[in-house]
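Field reference: sequence -> structure
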Amino acid sequence: MTPTLVRNQPGADASAPADAGTRARDWAEIQERMLAPLYEAVYDRMEVGAATRMLSLGCGSGLAMLVAAARGAHVTGVDSDRERLALARTRLLPDAGWDDAPPAHSPHPARRRARLLQEGDPAPAGADGSPYNLITVFEPIGCAAGDSEGLVPALRSAVPLAVRGATVVLTGWGPPERCATAAVLQVAARLADTARPPRTEPGRWRPTLRDDLEDVAARAGLKPDGSGRVSCPFGYADVGSAVRGLLSTGLFDAAVRATDRSQVEKEVAEALHPYQREDGTVWMPNVFRYLVCVT
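Structure field:
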């Protein structure tokens, strides 16, 4: 039986904005690049190159895949968000069908090594027909209640598609005291608590725990084999861009459900003031963590 990759996103539909395309573009154009140092650090450590056959779970709009493909890797991306996948397709497969490899005459070598899948679709072998030897999860976990629940079964489904002893890299937020953005994210928790009656629901912000990544690895049957920390400062042109980027992450969805989007935008903007520079830009130092595992 062909494994199927499924990662649930509890409550995502209820909080999606009227224009899901705008939200996906905010992610792709503003927020996704904030994690570029994390992608590069992982790829350097894993020596990603032409011999790499990578499966990216929660690939978003494809920036991490594009970086890996530029290094020569064969990449397959899986995500539940159709709008983000559409943007990833534009980046990686502009001349191809939805799940097909680009034509052999494509002038972009990186795009000849890519494949994109909607979560729930049967997952094939790597883009070159071989088993994967690297599985990545660049959607950071450990900052929202229940954010790893769908990841464990997705990892269990992905492992049979990889070679024995393949590398799996999980990523997450660093300690709250090392992440300036944590203070802004607390707005999400406070506003979510205004719901009547108060409730705890999946997707609600929570402080990162020290063993979040190790817990996921243990439940997925993976063996930890090293870890690292990477500085990923969040920098924005202005407060408006920062609000749009942060809301595109989904970490404020529970707050929007409990109040309304305009109130969330207003209070997030106020929380960003301590990080606004004289020229109007916003700068928040953060540390992210990654855990290297083997199957």
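Note: Residues 111 and 139 are 22 Å apart (CA to CA).
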